[in-house]
Amino acid sequence: MFRGDDGASGNGKGDSQAQVDEAAAKKSSQAQIKITPEDGSNNASINNSAAVTVAKGTLTEVKMTTADGTAVAGEISADKKTWKPSAQLERATTYKLSATAEDSAGLAAHENASFTTVAPDNSFIGTFTPDDGTTVGVGMPVSINFDKAITNRAEVQKGITVSTTGGQEVVCHWFNDNRMDCRPDEYWKEDSTVTLKLALDGVEGAEGVVGVQQKTVTFKIGRNQVTYVDAKTKQMKITQDGKTVRSIPISAGAPENKTYEGQMVISEKFKETRMNGATVGFTDDDGKGEYDIKDVPHAMRLSTSGTFIHGNYWGAKSIFGSVNTSHGCVGMSDTKGANDPSTPGAWFFDNSIVGDVVVVQNTGDRTIAPDNGLNGWNMSWEQWKAGSAV
């Protein structure tokens, strides 16, 4: 009998607690908030993290801050069902999120989470050229330099696509674990548009190292301009669509410092720049540069190792078209200060864009290495395709 009383008493207490829980549930919001990534996550994506969604309700407020309290801008969608940050997140940063939503009865629900994005040591990015929205010459490859050595080349290459409205097949070639260039068989078709898509977020480039980039880049191919430098005749001709538009006398590398031969792509342009022989191995007995000219006019880079095509104001006007005198560059007549538009150096500079091709011939030197600058055109199409990982 006592047991029966105890049992009845216990059931009564259980019923009472259940009723309390039920009553509390009826007073709680039906809104269900979900924050991704999960609370406490590490190595979170800087692109796809920090999403807030709600079911059975609408979002009324979302706050996101870094660990030190700096606010992160974001926006609730028009239907008030989702929220995302307005900009890409930073690497190796801890973020805190708090979200509030209401159900149809106006009852509020709350959710909080904290996560840390992937650290630089555990991630890689690719620095690419050309830039988004630019117009470049027909020889401009897509060149990507990775800040970590890539051992899973195939997986990374699968996450990168390059396409063109010109209808050309585009193939990517690995020069080494840190550099991959992409180009078609022949120069890009003029007036076409090239699109580079990087879908590398979460792609493992090497053990414990994942990609973080997720973006699309487009650039336009300009007119078809190819310049031919003949070191034997000391003349160069500038062609557009295969037709010569101008010839300019030049002075190429002297016999003891021949200019590389081959197809070279203009990668940078400087109205004026310094050229110091010491930086490219030309030094005197005292270790100083054989030359140090602080205001070389109208200089355009053709190689990483220091080959330029540029204006020359210090040489006698008589050398252009008659003798090769340089340390390996291609020079044209110009004036000090780079402000005379009538000079050959100024004309060529003004009529050239990054990505234009300069073909150097008859110097007697070897062909420039394909990875010395943006000069992969010096490989056959078969050699180029052999360097693809997919």
TrEMBL record:
CDD domains in alphabetical order: LDT_IgD_like_2 (cd13432), YkuD_like (cd16913)
Pathway, per record: Glycan biosynthesis; Cell wall biogenesis; peptidoglycan biosynthesis
Residues that span the membrane, as ranges: none
Gene Ontology molecular function terms on file: acyltransferase activity; peptidoglycan L,D-transpeptidase activity
UniProt xrefs under PANTHER family: L,D-TRANSPEPTIDASE, L,D-TRANSPEPTIDASE YCIB-RELATED
Keyword Ubl conjugation: no
Alphabetized InterPro entries for the sequence: Big_10, LD-transpeptidase, LD_TPept_cat_dom, Transpep_catalytic_dom
Protein name stated in the entry: Ig-like domain-containing protein
GO BP terms in the entry: cell wall organization; peptidoglycan-protein cross-linking; regulation of cell shape
Region annotation (Disordered) ranges: 1-31
Gene Ontology cellular component list: extracellular region
Top-rank taxon, per record: Bacteria
Pfam families attached to this UniProt entry: Big_10 (PF17964), YkuD (PF03734)
Domain L,D-TPase catalytic: from-to ranges: 225-361
Tagged with keyword Metal-binding: no
Active site, UniProt feature: 310 (proton donor/acceptor), 329 (nucleophile)
PROSITE patterns in UniProt: LD_TPASE
Annotated keywords: Acyltransferase, Cell membrane, Cell shape, Cell wall biogenesis/degradation, Lipoprotein, Membrane, Palmitate, Peptidoglycan synthesis, Signal, Transferase
